[in-house]
Amino acid sequence: MSSQGSTVDLTPGARRILDTASRLFYERGIHAVGVDTIADEAGVTKRTLYNRFGSKDVLVEQYLRGRDQRWLALRTAAVDAAGPDPIDRLRAVFDASAGWSDSDGGRGCGFTKAHAEFSDPAHPVAQLVAAQKQELLELFRGVLADAGVVDDHLAQAVLALHEGALVAHGVGVGADPWVSAREAAVRLASGA
């Protein structure tokens, strides 16, 4: 999958295609949605879709990159607003994730869902997913280090708590998986 187009500088027709594809991929799954459906719902021809994106794979890549850019902007704003205290920043990541999950219809992580459809580690979609999760692990490593905790196992445990809350929230298990995961992560970071 090579990057074509841009999630920032798209023609109105390309933006409509990407927005439609993004909604359909998240709601129905990537493999379940064909280019015919995307073109029909976006009000364009298949030829226009291919002229703008080249392939469905490029459209999938743009969908994931767009989700990631929106998520990073939200998360960065929340972490920045939390101030310098690492425990407050850790809470902010979990709280931002909870807000994102609620605003997104609570259907779970678009990246995890994409990975379920593209599990071959050599596939570019699987590589995008792995990179997104690795970036989150690096964030947790940094926040924990700022809290005086340099322990990769704990950083991975915090990531597991975060990802578990994503899944539990998405399937409706537990009273408030985000609060439970956040508080467990805070206890790990605080050495309690």
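(ticket continues) Second input and output from the same batch:
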Amino acid sequence: MTLMVDYCPRCGTVYQKNFRKMCNGCSNELDSTIKRCMDHLWRYPNSTTEELSQAADVEITELYQFIKEGKFSFTYPKLTFPCECCRQPIRQGRICSSCTGSFKEAFPVPAATVPAARTSGTRTSHKTLFTSRGSSRR
């Protein structure tokens, strides 16, 4: 018999495993935080990430995580998080397009070599389907 319990990653308490992978207290707290953010965004859809952080009283790093996870719709154009390389604001992914270009220039991908097709000794398989029905003739 295995116990279906784990430690909550946010607060460390033991909880019964569930879909959200956190205890009920942290889950309720997360829900209320997202609700506060959505209420503010409903009233002020052009809010920046910093304005939302101050208005909803949420840590900016937590907002960055929400944006990365897709908790907020892309209809809010000013919700951004920093690029992992240059810290420029981006809306999706991990790095901005200029850093992506820099990485592609610095580390070019070698052309993929296509394996030569085997010409001798190739086999073809023929499959026959047998059914349980017999042909009935009248």
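Agent notes: The mean pLDDT is 85. The CA atoms of residues 101 and 107 lie 10 Å apart. Closing as not reproducible unless the customer responds.
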